[in-house]
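Can't attach files on this board, so I'm pasting raw text. These are the components:
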Amino acid sequence: MENVLEIDSLRKVFTVRGATGGHEELVAVDDVSLSVPAGASLAMVGESGSGKTTVARIVAGLERETAGTVTICGERRPRRVWRSARRRFARHVQMVFQDPYSSLDPRQNAARAIEEVLVEHFDDGPADRRRRVQELLDHVGLDERQATARPAHLSGGQRQRVAIARALAVNPRLLILDEAVSALDVSVQAQVINLLIDLRQSLGIAFLFISHDLAVVRQVSEECVVMHHGHVVERGPVGDILDHPQEAYTRQLIDAIPRPGWVPRSRERRAVA
Amino acid sequence: MTPGPHTREGAARESGETDSVTSPAEPVLSIEQLTVDLPAAKQMRRVLHDVSLTVGAGEALGIVGESGSGKSMTARSVMRLLPRGSRVGGQILLSGSDLHRLSRSELRRTRHRKLAMIYQDPRAHINPLRTIGDFLVEGLLEDGRARRRSARGRAVQALRDVGIADAERRLRQYPHQLSGGLLQRVMIASALLTEPELLIADEPTTALDVTTQQEVVGVLDEQRRERGLSLIFITHDLDLAIAITDRIAVMYAGTLVETGPSHGLHEHAIHPYTRGLLESRPRIDRTDRLHAVPGRPISAYEVGAGCVFVDRCPYAVERARVERPLVRAIGGRLVACHRADELADRPLDSEG
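---
Top answer:
Structure tokens for the assembled complex are below.
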């Protein structure tokens, strides 16, 4: 099967101001390779600082890799991407962020926010565009009233639906979801998870699903990579990893999740750094 | 996914169904018919509707709900940390004395000696320019309970109690030098130092990674049990609340919809909203499609005359549209639902 995304030996080093005032190098991503076949859903899990968001941002073109390659739909992306090429890559890859509040324009209603993307990417006439906006609103389950509401008048779940509709507007082959359901209330989170599962099935779109929540990952993805300190420490089918984790770190991560019968182990008296 | 070997489920089961509906005779905290209205543009907006609950001595009560459900507002009412111009009805009794009738000086003393609170974001509640040692010692010196030298010794001990090994070094450090999890432990230590009667923890681990969360709630749980401290633990995570509390109160739209023992909540939950929360949460050991609760959570001021959950409820009947159900005792739980009897006989289909 064709891969919509291939990452090979990706490395990202940030220069940060060190404790003593000088500059220090922070290796955020180190030797990460992975691929996402067309229509597949790969989860990338890990805690804060594991490098998962940095990988996502590099794939989305928001960050430039220090070394390694990113290949999208068979085309290797150059390190420096010019405007026309950037638009071409954007048609293949779209990203949805954790906080739909800060990724939507507060003055734009939902329909306008979606239309804006269509204007940017396509030459359709107004009638075609309206039809497409309606189609996208239907896809994500927003009604007429919500379509004309500004973000401030929408709930978190509805805002996230707008963000998903915007991302889908260009018919991307790959959707990067960076903690896209993490900030939602439980009852609404389930709606958006089910929506994502349905959209993937009906549109055949692939997901790179980034999350710290392993229970959510089990719903949305078949394959999974576990990140820790910038490295991939374990990879495989989600079910295998969650039921039979091989790495100590993965086991730790799974054991820490509250569930029926769970008791927090404080690992007390351990020197914490 | 089987639960780890460190489960204490078996032991708890054997104690049987002895949990009472309300807490023991002498509650540390008793909230009666609490209503709160906050000033919004030109009018007052109701944020809490007739909330009644108790916390017994040494008991841990979980308050669980989604954003806007009123769980934090309940905690803030207890701390009397409501915005200026708020209107409060009902009573909040802390070991018998009405918190909203205290004078300023009495309130100050009560907050200092009887109550302690831990917040979601510790960095917003600690002076970044003072050392951890100053922060911990300050409170003890202020009310003359300790001299500087002994206060410092107690601070060191408090840090060790919450699992911070190199306490001496930490005392000299500043908040920015500590990770979020470590700083939250410092907050717990600080709360314990004042030897309060009631500790309120408002989403103390929501901003932390799961492995850090486990350590922090583990320490909180252990210290609370050792000291016989009463705790209100506020969270949106039902399974987390189940693990470290004795009873759980579920809130929706500024209303308490169900209160009951934490143990066995997965099997015995009655209120359709509680069941909805349990069923919509993804489980690490299951892949079947989630039962999402339709619609969106509403705010307390948006509710009509009927049940607060009626618009999203799969069991809603006509009566629920016009008449708000009163809280009733059923099957060892307190439930605000017209169909509670019927639902109690129909257990939730869960492996929990």
